[in-house]
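Can anyone check this?
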Amino acid sequence: MKVVLASGSPQRKEILQKLGIGFEVVVPGVEELTDGDPELLVVENAWRKARAVEAPAGVLVVACDTDVVLDGEVLGKPADEAEARAYLDRMSGRAHTVMSGLVVLADGGERSGLDRSEVVFRPLSEAEKERYVRFGEWRGRSGGYAVQTLGSTLVESVHGSVANVVGLPVGLLAELAPELFAPHE
């Protein structure tokens, strides 16, 4: 089965590779929504990405959108160091939700779902926040951190799927596209 990942995310690519799923990447280049109900927003953005990929019959398209939500607000990707620092200030010592909308298109069938994980940041000192911002890992990351690398030092706990926090909810993918996880013959 041919699989297309409708995403330029290196994290999503790495997760699929580790799962042993063969795929090609097509970056859809769609404009993502940034305002509205976070649950609807991430699913709609995933739909936009999936539908932007022109795939022939027999190709399975996987698209995902992940955002960090704090106090009902989607934080998105920080524009600069000041915004990255402001995100860390807001999340320090608090819980936030990571939501992913996932869409799978296959042979005319469309499947979608939503996954959410709760991440609790430990209280961060000013020096820790400054170090993290200067490290630069916040660039291009929803919420301004990456849980799989240095950002793990910010986190006290994760409730739910860590893969979701990284950027691809594997459990939901297995539910929506079980054919990807069938034993190879």
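Reply from J.R.: I decoded it. The chain has one domain: 2-181.
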